[in-house]
Amino acid sequence: MSVPRPAAVIVLAAGEGTRMKSSKPKVLHELCGRALVDHMLAAARGLDPERLIVVIGHAREQVQAHLDTTGSDALAVVQREQKGTGHAVRTVLESVGAVNGTVLVTYGDTPLLRTETLAELLATHAAEGNAVTVLTAEVPDPTGYGRIIRDTTGAVLEIVEDKDASPEQKAIKEMNSGVYAFDGLLLADGVKRVGSSNAQGEEYLTDVLSILREDGHRVGAYVAADHVEVEGVNDRVQLAFARRVLNTRVLEGHMRAGVTIIDPASTWIDVGVAIERDVVVHPGTQLHGRTSIATGAEVGPATTLTDTAVGAGAVVRNAVCEGAEIGAEATVGPYTYLRPGTRLGRKAKAGSYVEMKNAEVGDGSKVPHLTYVGDATIGVGTNIGAATIFVNYDGVNKHHTTIGDHVRVGSDSMLVAPVTVGDGAYTAAGSVITNDVPPGAIAVARARQRNVEGWVERRRAGTASAEAARRAAASQDGGSSHPEDLPETADQAGQAARSGERTPGSGK
Ligand code: UD1
Ligand code: CA
Hints:
Blueprint (H helix, E strand, L loop, with lengths): L7 E6 L16 E2 L2 E2 H10 L5 E6 L3 H10 L5 E4 L6 H12 L5 E6 L7 H14 L3 E7 L8 E4 L5 E5 L6 H4 L3 E10 H9 L14 H8 L4 E5 L12 H21 L3 E2 L6 E2 L4 E2 L4 E2 L4 E3 L3 E2 L4 E2 L4 E3 L2 E2 L4 E2 L2 E4 L2 E2 L4 E2 L3 E3 L4 E2 L4 E13 L4 E13 L4 E2 L4 E3 L9 E3 L4 E2 L4 E3 L2 E3 L4 E2 L4 E2 L8 E2 L11 H5 L4 H15 L13 H15 L2
Parallel strand pairs: 1-4, 1-6, 4-5, 7-11, 12-15, 13-16, 14-17, 15-18, 16-19, 17-20, 18-21, 19-22, 20-23, 21-24, 22-25, 23-26, 24-27, 25-27, 26-27, 27-28, 28-31, 29-32, 30-33, 31-34, 32-35, 33-36, 35-37
Antiparallel strand pairs: 2-3, 6-10, 7-10, 8-9
Helix pairs in contact: 6-7
The chain binds uridine-diphosphate-N-acetylglucosamine (UD1) and calcium ion.
């Protein structure tokens, strides 16, 4: 199939989209990681057109701003008043001049239309030497669509709008998709001659077909194999339908390329996501934006990744990650929140109930439980004990914490930034670390424990606790163990060191 490069693709997107019932222009509603209009622009770009033009009108500031922020290469032409599809094309050609070559006209609200189908339309158009070739489809319910009127030989005569159609014409199931390949110069001439004496008082682009045919030019049709592809989105029910169809298409593409998707019904993957072979995606997973997953990784269940890179062989379960980089063979989750700027090294761990932001965790370092790591650099082979908080915010500014290699941070530590813990250092459990800890030191920053003997029996007499204490005292009296038999109380540093050594072990 030889596909001629179109001289221009014109995407009509000036309409209001009233049935969306939205303050947002219809073509900016999203599915599978892209706005409606961007799906059409992507399909059009696949044809490598010389010019890509979008007609904007309703809420054009918002649409233009969207095109700007997405860095679109499309030229926006403003149609101030929406006086019909023919008027929209006329406005473009008056703005950019008649286009010599093939002009493809399409809509901004048909996100399921594939480049391949557009290419087939162009190929048919070229092979048959037509002045215009319309993309049509047989649909179960053609209500609302223009109908394709053919003569007894099957040649296309004209397109009649639903509102202008006779009962016999309404019975025709072949609909006009609104997508056409035109000879550019004949199109420029044709749109000037379109009137507006019809049920809607609009300039119908469809009228160009009969005008060109009456001039003696060839008019053809290409029937799409799958009518679902050409059906547009007019309301949010159709938007959800299109999203489901497109998602299925995306998932099937990944599965055919070697990705295991356990439950396609509960898995949503945006069009921009890259997944390598032998990745397993568990149920309830959503992969958004520029997320990438390297070979052998397992993602899910119940995981939402946005713009996140997952390394080879990593495991990410029950997690929400945004703008994070997860190293090869790292483990994340369950119940983990990784925010932008998180970078986990090779074989690193972000465990359960752990939140991280703007944090670099070195190879093999572990943050296993109940911890917040914000604005930090952690070296290699370090363990952060359970319930540690990186206190990064002083109420006005954010500060950085630096933790060295092979550090053992005791459980329930507060690391008050800016602060540095040197290589191989320890912190005692329950410490509030406000000063730098030199390499190899243990930092102890907590009040010493004081036991007030007999307090419960004196002050909570008659309670179950007092009774339990009395029983314990009685059995001790009768037993062989006496307070004198206990080893001497360790000195303060020794005691601290013991708890410091023990604590990181709880974070394994
Ligand atoms: C149009 C076709 C109809 C076809 C149907 C397919 C005409 C006259 N009718 O009908 O045969 O079956 O599409 O969906 O073309 N637009 C503009 N400027 C305008 C008017 C429309 O940019 O002045 C854009 C809209 O944003 C929309 C598209 O063109 O994306 C179609 O417009 P719409 O008014 O919905 O046409 P239909 O009545 O659906
Ligand atoms: Ca429409």
